[in-house]
Design brief:
With 219 residues, this protein is α+β, with helices and mostly antiparallel strands. It has a single domain, classed as Tgt2/MlaC (Nuclear Transport Factor 2, Chain: A, Roll), CATH 3.10.450. It is built from 9 helices and 5 strands. The chain has helices at 11-24, 27-33, 36-41, 44-61, 63-66, 70-81, 87-95, 104-121, 187-217; strands at 134-137, 148-156, 162-171, 174-182, 185-186. A 5-stranded antiparallel β-sheet has the order 1-2-3-4-5. A hairpin with a 2-residue loop joins strand 3 and strand 4 (174-182). Helix 1 packs across helix 4 and helix 7 packs across helix 9.
Length: 219
């Protein structure tokens, strides 16, 4: 009999959700108001900083999102966050070496279910945004690879500042976030051990099934 595994977030994951929402969320509105070419050539730190302040204002003003309204959060992700986050890269990182063994259909299902897991699990993170929440960014450091960048920041406003690093890669559509690191914990790596346990026990289809069941139970 297959053992059911519930995928749980760490406190760092919850902080990452706030960071992700505040840093990637306004991308849709920004690109709608400016030419796509301008967004594609904008420096990664400038892009993250510009859109973060816009979205933080929106989240603070939306009581439904702050209360954890799943429909509002899913709509926010689909409309505004998804265009600037590479969920495929995040899923590959979380699944690890097993990703190469998955069929194209399995990879598609894993990406869909992982996105839902993040959205539904992190709904509580939006309730942590307060009027005092602010974001601070460090100057962009030099990178040995011009197609990759790391933007360092801090979330302040409640207790000790939370350090958040955004990992971005340059694509044909512009810079996209492909992973987050919160207080030295990488999101992809932190889920990898949990996913590996299930895959080793019941295969990739078993992981898809358990992700799907957990997402359905969260509705």
């Amino acid at each position: 009999m297959m053992k059911t595994h519930r995928f749980l977030p760490s406190l760092a994951h919850v902080a990452a959700a706030v960071a992700l929402a505040c840093s990637a969320g306004a991308g849709f509105a920004q690109t709608a108001a400016a030419p796509a070419a301008a967004a594609a050539t904008q420096a990664p730190d400038a892009l993250v900083k510009q859109i973060s302040n816009e979205v933080l204002t929106d989240v603070k003003a939306d009581k439904q999102i702050q209360s954890g309204d799943t429909r509002r959060i899913v709509a926010l992700v689909d409309q505004k966050i998804l265009p600037h986050v590479d969920f495929a890269a995040m899923t590959r990182s979380a699944v690890g070496v097993h990703w190469r063994k998955a069929t194209p259909e399995q990879q598609k299902r894993l990406q869909e279910e992982f996105k839902l897991l993040l959205v539904r699990t992190y709904s509580k993170a939006f309730t942590q945004v307060t009027p005092q929440t602010t974001l601070e960014f460090d100057p962009l450091g030099a990178s040995s690879d011009p197609a990759k960048a790391t933007v360092q920041s801090r979330i302040t406003g409640a207790g000790q500042p939370v350090k958040v690093n955004y990992y971005l890669a340059k694509t044909a559509e512009g810079w996209k976030i492909n992973d987050l690191e919160v207080e030295a914990v990488r999101m992809g790596l932190s889920y990898r051990s949990q996913f590996a346990q299930v895959i080793n026990q019941s295969g990739i289809d078993g992981l898809i099934t358990q992700l799907s069941e957990q997402n359905k139970s969260a509705k």
